Amino acid sequence: MTTALYITGKIPWLRAIQTIVAQVIAAIAASGFVSALLPGPLNIDTKLDASMSVARGIFLEAFVTSMLVLTILMLEGGPSKPMYIGMSLFVAELCSAFYTGGSLNPARSFGPCVFIGFTDYHYIYWFGPLLGSGVASGAYWLINSVHAEENRV
């Protein structure tokens, strides 16, 4: 999401970097807290299902991330905005949780991996959401340019 906000010009680059660093630190801290609080091994990491290839995992993460990001970008405000974003996140998680772990955010996958260990395909949880954010930003730009053209006519 931070990437999409930067691409669409809604936040400056310095704020984007600060937000990404804060998300990663918070994910590590939360994973450490949960690891210390609960007995046994930490079971909150994101893993690919055996039926999923790495390529399919990347594209599924990109697709569900783009769906969520486009929902957030297209909504202007109002009292029902949180409900629409929550429903979009719910559908995204329903579609991806059993296949890729439903990361949708690199920090969400990075935090637990600090304590559990990184998989050899961990990069899909960075590349997929970044690709999805880029696609959603492009779609947002295209929709806004068509809408602006309609208003000129």
Topology:
Elements: H1 2-7, H2 13-37, H3 54-74, H4 81-100, H5 106-116, H6 124-152
Task: Explain what you see.
- By secondary structure, the chain is mostly helical.
- The chain has a single domain, classed as Up-down Bundle (Glycerol uptake facilitator protein).
- The protein contains six helices and no strands.
- It has helices spanning 2-7, 13-37, 54-74, 81-100, 106-116, 124-152.
- Helix 2 (13-37) packs across helix 5 and helix 5 packs antiparallel against helix 6.
- The two termini are 33 Å apart.
CATH architecture: Up-down Bundle
Number of helices: 6
Assess the beta-strand content as a share of residues.
under 5%
Share of residues in helices: over 70%
CATH class bucket: Mainly Alpha
Number of domains: 1
Would you count the extended β strands for me? 0
Spans of at least 5 consecutive residues whose pLDDT stays below 50 are none
Give helix and strand order, one letter per element, not per position: HHHHHH
The major β-sheet equals: none
Q: What kind of assembly state do the chains in view correspond to?
A: single chain
Let me know the CATH homologous superfamily.
Glycerol uptake facilitator protein
Which class best fits the helix and strand makeup? mainly alpha
Shape from CA axes? globular
Q: Round the mean pLDDT to the nearest integer and report it.
A: 92
Computed over alpha carbons, the radius of gyration is: 17 Å
